[in-house]
Design goal:
The strands form 3 sheets. This protein has a 6-stranded mixed β-sheet, sandwiched between helices. Strands 2-1-4-5 form a 4-stranded antiparallel β-sheet, covered by helices on one side. Strands 12-13-11-14 form a 4-stranded antiparallel β-sheet, with no helix packed on it. It has 2 domains: 4-217, Rossmann fold (3-Layer(aba) Sandwich), CATH 3.40.50; 221-279. It has 10 helices and 14 strands. A hairpin with a 2-residue loop joins strand 4 (57-62) and strand 5 (65-66). 34% of the residues are buried. It has 303 residues and is of the alpha/beta class. It is elongated, with a radius of gyration of 24 Å. Helix 4 (110-118) runs antiparallel to helix 5 (132-144). The structure holds adenosine-5'-triphosphate. Adenosine-5'-triphosphate (ATP) binds next to strand 2 and helix 1. InterPro entries: AAA+_ATPase, ABC_transporter-like_ATP-bd, ABC_transporter-like_CS, ABC_Transporter_VariousFunc, P-loop_NTPase. This is ABC transporter. Residues 4-229 form the ABC transporter domain. GO terms for molecular function: ATP binding; ATP hydrolysis activity. Keywords: ATP-binding, Nucleotide-binding, Transport.
């Protein structure tokens, strides 16, 4: 059984597009990065998966349960961190953890206390006095405490200092190692890149890409720079795999995709002073996908 499955799941807010029909599968134990610029539809997707929003069309299941018709069964198995954490002002974090455990029919707050301690969150102050970062930590502890089968996290490290961010990523890795699933919405690529098994990119309510992180990395072009000692005899522009080729005097720059062997063979008879082939960062690739001018493919073109 898949942890999360959506079939042509869409959401319109009146006539406003929230989410174009979305087909997505997340496997148990996976950390699934859900990326996209502001307004892409990440929160809409998560809130629909939580059964807070009624889908305009399509269906979604979490651990086999329909997210709209079987909301309560879904909530029992999910840990949810909203993008905007609201907490009662007049309780302490400790009291809230105990209350939350009781609502789930348990008295066990031990894992919540462990995560709080790792995040260096003090549990006695009134929640109304907490900073944004500390409120975020309370939200995370609440989402994690009952060791849910699926975590739906909307911008989990928002407002956290680098040390706490690191701890959160560590906890997410542990969660996945225990076979539990993490659906991680973010626009911070650097953190997603460090933990995700697969990544989806959403833009203007549409899925533009879904790939395993290592496949995505392997598909990125490499930046090529060559300094020739003499005008080159070979025409590098026509090599399959080359794009954005530019020769200015003895200096060549271009983007190279694929194995460098063919490139090195083509250069064998040339006289070179310098040669460098540097992989693009995922950041570059994603920024390219984010650009409003980039083409948004129809969903059927997406794997
Ligand atoms: N309650 C609402 N009423 C009308 N339109 C909405 C509502 N909520 C979201 N939208 C629209 O739906 C689209 C998707 O918004 P959503 O909040 O899901 O994006 P997001 O990817 O989570 O963005 P962010 O990174 O800024 O949180 C946007 O165009 C937004 O304006």
């Amino acid at each position: 059984m898949n942890a999360i499955e959506t079939h042509a799941l869409s959401k319109l807010y009146g006539t406003n597009l929230g989410l174009h029909p979305l087909d997505l599968t997340v496997r148990p134990g996976e950390i699934f990065g859900f990326l996209g610029p502001n307004g892409a539809g990440k929160t809409t997707t998560i809130r629909t998966l939580m059964g807070f929003l009624r889908p305009t069309s399509g269906t979604a299941t979490l651990m086999g349960r329909d997210v709209w018709r079987e909301r309560e069964a879904v909530h029992a198995r999910v840990g949810y961190l909203p993008g905007d954490v609201h907490l009662p002002r007049d309780l302490s974090a400790r009291e809230l953890l105990e209350r939350s455990a009781r609502l789930r029919g348990s008295r066990d707050v031990s894992y919540g206390l462990e995560v709080a301690s790792r995040l260096e969150l003090r549990l006695t102050p009134q929640l109304g006095t907490l900073s944004k970062g500390n409120r975020q930590k309370v939200g995370l502890v609440l989402a994690l405490m009952h060791r849910p089968e699926v975590l739906l996290l909307d911008e989990p490290t928002d407002g956290l200092d680098p040390l706490a961010q690191e701890t959160v990523l560590e906890v997410l890795r542990e969660t996945s190692a225990q076979g539990r699933t993490v659906f991680l919405s973010s626009h911070v690529l650097r953190e997603v890149e460090r933990v995700a098994d697969r990544v989806a990119i959403l833009r203007q309510g549409r899925l533009v890409r879904v790939d395993a992180l290592n496949v995505l990395k392997a598909s990125l072009p490499q930046h090529l720079e060559i300094r020739f000692a003499a005008p080159p005899m070979v025409n590098l522009t026509t090599l399959p795999g080359m794009s954005k080729a530019h020769l200015a005097g003895l200096n060549f720059t271009g983007l190279w995709r694929g194995n460098p062997e063919a490139l090195i063979r083509a250069l064998a008879a040339e006289s070179l002073i310098g040669f460098s082939l540097v992989p693009s960062s995922l950041e570059d690739a994603f920024l390219e996908e984010y650009r409003p001018t980039a083409q948004v493919p129809e969903p059927s073109h997406v794997a």
